[in-house]
Amino acid sequence: MKADALTDVAGVRVGHATRTGDGWLTGTTVVLAPEGGAVAAVDVRGGGPGTKETDALDPRNVVQRVDAVTLTGGSAFGLDAASGVMAWLEEQGRGVRVGPEPTHVVPVVPAACVFDLRRGGDFRARPDASLGRAAVEAAAATGPGAPVPQGCVGAGTGAVVGQLKGGVGSASTVLPSGVTVAALVVANAVGSAVDLETGVLYGDYFGGRPRLPGPEVHRAARRRLAEAAERNAPPPMNTTLAVVATDADLTRAQAQKLAGTAHDGIARAVRPVHLLNDGDTVFTLATGTRPLDAKDPLALNEVLAAGADLVTRAIVRAVRAADPVDGPGGAWPSYGELYGGS
């Protein structure tokens, strides 16, 4: 049975480490590639990114494969979490071989952060190397194809979308060619995921004909969102992060193209998007177990289209799975709390 999540790409595992209470509302999520790593790429569209080791993924540079990607809260401070992931990978002998011994490796761990500082109340409560290590250990402990916890977990713990609580979401599909494509998203955006004229999640418009919330429900929801906006400090920085994984055998250039087109999925689900105070970043991982049709120069197209679609669906799931928060750092209602099953 498929998990309908990133872990449906064989060998890919996901682990979360979450901290809440006593001023904390943050966490780290690690996507662990199969043994031997995966071809990786990145595309950054937001104007305020916080990243690590993204230059290593440029197809012109030397690193061919990576073993893990770290998504974390804590803004730039939280990038320390990647150090804990690196330490764990080094102990496993996983990384770029740089010496004669199997232990002579340098793990390359691309990372990106979301802004969630002070949302739990304490500005200094942010992920560090120990939280990154906990997340990668959690990933390694999961079984093949394990379900991915979604909502307010890991890097999505302190996530906010507009004035709504955000979080982690994931989705997958198997294409007619047999290729699996999947996405995991940390939805944390300055823009809104909700059409304030109708109460419908923007991403749901791409899934058919969404059911409109009742007028009274929608009016009450708008009042709650306005109250939240008055109470909460303006969001100085946000950022939506995504990892799109596939078992297709992609070149590094093809993986780069997939990372770029996957941003379309964010633009369908959040408006406005890619602002100067967002740091929107998409990573791709290709495990390479299924070759594309070598006779078809456009065989990559179905993977590109699916990547964008799945990012949209993952954002919808993240917002629907989120729980409301009301604490010393602010109050953010959830979509489910405002609109129920709409």
Describe the structure.
The chain has 342 residues and is an alpha+beta fold. Helix content is 25%, strand content 24%. It has 6 helices and 16 strands. It has helices at 81-91, 129-140, 215-231, 252-269, 301-321, 335-339, and strands spanning 13-21, 24-32, 39-44, 51-52, 68-72, 96-97, 105-106, 111-113, 160-161, 164-165, 167-174, 180-187, 241-248, 281-290, 325-327, 330-332. The strands form 5 sheets. The protein has a 5-stranded mixed sheet with strand order 1-2-5-8-4, covered by helices on one side. Strands 3-14-13-12-11 form a 5-stranded mixed sheet. Strands 6-7 form a two-stranded antiparallel ribbon. Strand 6 and strand 7 form a beta hairpin. The radius of gyration is 19 Å and the shape is globular.
Quick description:
The chain has 342 residues and is of the alpha+beta class. It is built from 6 helices and 16 strands.
Topology:
Layout: E1 13-21, E2 24-32, E3 39-44, E4 51-52, E5 68-72, H1 81-91, E6 96-97, E7 105-106, E8 111-113, H2 129-140, E9 160-161, E10 164-165, E11 167-174, E12 180-187, H3 215-231, E13 241-248, H4 252-269, E14 281-290, H5 301-321, E15 325-327, E16 330-332, H6 335-339
Parallel strand pairs: 5-8, 13-14
Antiparallel strand pairs: 1-2, 2-5, 3-14, 4-8, 6-7, 9-10, 11-12, 12-13, 15-16
Helix pairs in contact: 1-2, 4-5
